[in-house]
Amino acid sequence: MGRPAAALADMRWPEVDSGPRRVLVVPVGSLEQHGPHLPLDTDTRIAVAVARGACASVSGVALAPAIGIGASGEHRDFPGTLSIGTAALTGCLIELGRHSSLHWRAMLLVNGHGGNTEALRTVTARLGYEGRVCRIWHATLPGGDAHAGRLETSIMLALAPQAVLMSAAAAGCRLPIEELMPALRAGGVRAVSPNGVLGDPCGASAAEGRKLLTELTSGLRETLQRLLNNMTEGEPVPNGQTASPCSPGASR
């Protein structure tokens, strides 16, 4: 299985100081309804699991604690959902990127929630303009199973079967997400799906979940390795200085 990922929260500062500090990986998730059968932190659990798997045995990479509350305004009508909104998430991650650049060459954000996308785009643009290196990787699932459907349910059955209440699983709105976007923007998820599901969890299985996790982890590991391979003298060094100026927008 290889060496576990270096979890930053479990380390002491001299351990961090004495080791290579190349990429800080930060899972970004949400705390929002996932139908009547999945836990509120589903997106965060998936982002953390994939990040942990991708970081394992990679030298110079550390896994930060997850940002567990994101921009989930579209789920606001479901009790239990907590959201800090796009502006607050943007500000939080910009400041995190600025501080992490004092000690790490780059920051890689592993996003588990689609509603965070606007904030993350702004973050990478701002940090890139400032000469810092920040990349995003999205845990995108195939097909049109948009929210709490078969694919997410399968992953959760593989990760934490005790947290899945399959007896309460039921189909929600199954229209393609592209057709739903105007209504979602106007009235949120509850306007189109009373139970909060966009898709159908029927047929979910732990076996499918393990396959999806393997694919996601492989995709993130490729992105992480590419970032490590592409590091140049012009990127930020651990003391926060740069060897040469970076052009605005160099980080995408």
- In order across it, which strands form the biggest sheet? 1-3-2-4-5
| N-to-C series of helices and strands | EHEHEHEHEHHH
| Estimated helix fraction | 25-40%
> Separation of termini?
32 Å
CATH homologous superfamily, by name?
A: Creatininase
Gross CATH architecture: 3-Layer(aba) Sandwich
Annotation, overall tally of beta strands:
5
Characterize the structure shown.
The chain contains seven helices and five strands, in the order βαβαβαβαβααα. It has a five-stranded parallel β-sheet with strand order 1-3-2-4-5, with helices on both faces. The chain has a single domain (about 5-230), classed as 3-Layer(aba) Sandwich (Rossmann fold), CATH 3.40.50.10310. The chain is of the alpha/beta class and about 250 residues long. The chain starts with 5 loop residues before the first strand and ends in a 22-residue tail after the last helix. Helix 2 (about 40-55) links the parallel strand 2 and strand 3.
